[in-house]
Write a structure and sequence with these properties.
- With about 725 residues, the chain is an alpha/beta fold.
- The protein has three domains: about 260 residues, Spore Coat Polysaccharide Biosynthesis Protein SpsA, Chain A (Alpha-Beta Complex), CATH 3.90.550; about 160 residues, UDP N-Acetylglucosamine Acyltransferase, domain 1 (3 Solenoid); about 180 residues, Alpha Horseshoe (Serine Threonine Protein Phosphatase 5, Tetratricopeptide repeat), CATH 1.25.40.
- Helix content is about 35%, strand content about 20%.
- The strands form eight sheets. The chain has a nine-stranded mixed beta sheet with strand order 15-16-19-22-25-28-31-34-37.
- Strand 2 and strand 3 form a beta hairpin.
- Helix 5 packs across helix 8 and helix 16 packs across helix 19.
- The chain is globular, with a radius of gyration of 28 Å.
- Belongs to the eIF-2B gamma/epsilon subunits family.
């Protein structure tokens, strides 16, 4: 749990409490983003209270705000679920954590309306943080706050700072249909142009010439994840009030302020974060991706066994399996890796649960298979049923011998009769909203849910059908359908993702809700998902073994078992081992009790676990690939350049890699694909140069020695 933000603890590490001369750090949390991407689940519950890894989304948001030193929080609610949000917060521990936690209810129909409401109420005493109630993050923003404050002292017209996460062009959770381009002045970090783009429709950017003329050095960035974290000023609220037709923070507010710069001189700046995790759960695709990241501990410390809620009792077991108290597992049941089991749930004989989240008080029958799925509280799955890559909401009952196929969404309270097949991408609900926006009971369709079932199919409209058809040629995953042409579609500010790891090439994520159009075959996409899953699992396994100082032979044995189970390729093994070494060495340098210098850490890690390297790195091409994987994983890590330098040196001096392997790595275009990768690689230039030169000199000496021997032989023959 987060400590009270004004009383030291982890919150104080990033932002100390206010002095007499300072205003308290405030934040506003918007719980309604005014779109319907989570329909039908949000018919009866606000998105911020939907559970991610069995914890309400807003808990992650408030935990992060406490960790960055926020003292006062205003939770802005609007729409149909305001009372639910207010009631939840009134009973939560957050009332005692923050100095002040207030719920503001309004009739806002957009973020713009909410901003104008805040301005009218005059609640913001100074600069404040603006976020959404579906944010999951662990990033440090102390530098961003400091830069923003310094900038404001020099220029009162600097009215906002956008915090963006660097992620690469092909981040696995980025929306490949709708992108964002930030044009940034390199010297001042000022955003001078912003545009939302649809690469599939128009790959061109039309940047006005006048934008470019006054800026010598600019960065055009399409590799940034925008999670809606902004440091705002009261002046920014005034701009919203002056422009009553602005609805969206990016497309309207940012675009409008930048467009009016010549007239009013107001500026918006950026702060780009290169480390840590940040994502909004603003789509089903993001829900799947962030859930998996939480379970896989990429969001540390925010993982299930942190037990954010007082009543939670999760314990972590091998393979990232989290289990609460009073879970009943039949002797012949099987619980696979990356699985969460909530309190009071039971799993019957012969059932298999893999890579899934099971809520509280769920009943999983006999011989059931649940894979890549999310089963919420109080659900019942009948015997011999298969649920794959789907969301089954609270109090849903699925009969015996059913098959819930990929991409299905089954909303709260739906009952599916025995023997029913829920086809791919179906959305089933029991309630709906009428013309007056009131929740009403829908008419059950026995053709969909079977005789005795309860629920109906939510039909797609023409526009959704068109989107659906356009994606059939690509990856047929969960979030195929976007909403109507309102704030929720391309005009929304929800183009974000989650921090994971830098990818050199586009790669599909193991998550099944991605709305990604692709020219690849379904088999190719599935292979990429399989690889991503294997590399992540194998990396975790190797890193865990090294951290616990297990015998390297035992670590290698477990790695081989993973390989055989998944029929993994040799390259996948090298990638996992390289990533594990990268993270272990960095961890040694960051050890709070006894931090090691990169040189010492690299030597200790490699020499103690050298058999892991020799088992998968032999030929020059394999050596080059291993170095490339090591380089990629170190790209955005603390002291990444120093670690790469000393790791390359140890690998070379101990003959794990030779001069040919070093040279192949150096010549590989992927090692310098971006300027950042090239800059990182250049840290090891001295090692490569000296080793290659030494090898060349040795080769030359051998040749001369050979020539001398030949001359001696000739002399002997002459004699």
């Amino acid at each position: 749990m987060a400590p009270k933000a004004s009383k030291g603890g982890k919150a104080a590490k990033q932002n100390e409490g206010p002095t007499e001369a300072e205003e308290p750090l405030q934040a506003v949390v918007f719980t309604d983003s005014h779109e319907g991407r989570f329909i039908p689940f949000t018919y009866s519950q606000p998105r911020c209270l939907l559970k991610l890894a069995n914890t309400p989304l807003i808990e992650y948001t408030l935990e992060w705000l406490a960790s960055v030193g926020v003292q006062e929080v205003f939770v802005h609610t609007a729409g149909n679920h305001s009372e639910q949000v207010e009631a939840y917060l009134e009973q939560s521990r957050w009332q005692d954590t923050f100095d002040s936690l207030r719920t503001i209810t309004s009739a806002a129909t957009s973020i713009g309306d909410a901003m104008r409401d805040l301005d009218e109420k005059g609640l913001m005493k100074g600069d404040f943080i603006s976020v959404y109630g579906d944010l999951v993050a662990n990033i440090d923003i102390s530098a961003a706050l400091s830069s923003h404050k310094t900038r404001r002292l020099k220029n009162k017209d600097a009215i906002m700072t956008m915090i963006l996460r660097e992620a690469g062009d092909y981040h696995r959770t980025k929306d490949q249909h709708n992108g964002q381009c930030f044009v940034i002045d390199s010297d001042t970090s000022r955003c001078i142009y912003y545009e939302q783009v649809r690469p599939r429709k128009s790959p061109r950017l039309d940047i006005p010439a006048e934008v470019m003329k006054d800026h010598v050095d600019i960065d055009m960035r399409e590799d940034l994840i925008d999670c809606g974290i902004d440091i705002c000023t009261p002046d920014s609220l005034a701009q919203w009030s002056d422009s009553f037709d602005w609805k969206r923070p990016r497309k309207d507010f940012v675009h409008g302020v930048l467009q009016d710069y010549e007239t009013f001189g107001r500026t918006i700046h950026t702060h780009i974060v290169k480390e840590g995790y940040a994502a909004r759960v603003n789509s089903l695709r993001a829900y799947d991706a962030v859930s998996k990241d939480v379970v896989s501990r990429w969001t540390y410390p925010y993982s299930p066994n942190m037990n954010m809620l007082a009543e939670q009792t999760y314990q972590l077991a091998k393979g990232n399996v989290y289990r609460e108290d009073r879970v009943t597992l039949a002797r012949s049941s099987s619980i696979g890796r990356r699985t969460v089991l909530g309190e009071g749930s039971s799993v019957g004989e012969g059932s298999v649960i893999i890579n899934s989240v099971i809520g509280r008080r769920c009943v999983i029958g006999k011989r059931v298979r649940v894979e890549n799925a999310y089963i919420w509280d109080d659900a019942h799955i009948g015997d011999d049923t298969v649920v794959e890559t789907a969301i089954v909401a609270n109090e849903v009952s699925i009969g015996k011998k059913c098959h819930v196929k990929r991409g299905a969404l089954i909303s709260q309270g739906v009952k599916v009769a025995d023997g029913v097949v829920v086809e791919e991408n179906m959305r089933l609900a029991k309630i709906e909203r009428d013309d007056d926006d009131e929740v009403v009971q829908g008419v059950t369709d026995p053709k969909i849910v079977g005789e005795g079932g309860e629920g109906f199919l939510i039909e797609l409209n023409e526009e959704e059908e068109e989107v659906y058809e356009s994606l059939l040629a690509g990856v047929q995953d969960m979030d195929l359908v976007e909403d109507d042409d309102d704030d929720s579609d391309f005009d929304s500010d929800d183009e974000d993702g989650a921090e994971y790891e830098h990818e050199m090439v586009p790669a599909a994520r193991s998550g099944s809700f991605a709305s990604v159009a692709s020219n690849e075959s379904e088999e190719g996409a599935e292979l990429k998902r399989k690889k991503a899953d294997f590399v992540r699992t194998a990396t975790d396994s190797v890193l865990d073994g090294m951290t616990k100082k297990q015998n390297e032979d035992n670590i290698q044995l477990e790695l081989q078992s993973h390989r055989l189970a998944e029929n993994a390729e040799d390259s996948w093994i090298r990638e996992a081992v390289a990533a594990a070494f990268s993270r272990y060495i960095v961890a040694l340098t960051e050890n709070e009790e006894e931090p090691q210098k990169p040189k010492v850490a690299a030597e200790a890690a490699i020499m103690t676990n050298q058999r892991l390297i020799t088992a998968c790195v032999k030929e020059a091409g394999e050596q080059a690939e291993f170095l490339l994987f090591l380089q990629i994983d170190l790209l955005h890590r603390q002291q990444g350049g120093e670690v790469l330098l000393h790791a390359a040196y140890v690998l070379a001096i101990e003959d794990f890699v030779d001069s040919v392997g070093l040279q192949e790595w150096w010549d590989d275009s992927r090692s310098s694909r971006t300027q950042e990768l090239q800059d990182l690689r250049d840290k090891a230039e001295g090692v490569v140069t000296s080793m290659v030169a030494a090898a060349a000199a040795e080769s030359s000496e051998d040749e001369e020695s050979g020539e001398d021997e030949d001359d001696e032989d000739e002399d002997e023959d002459d004699d």
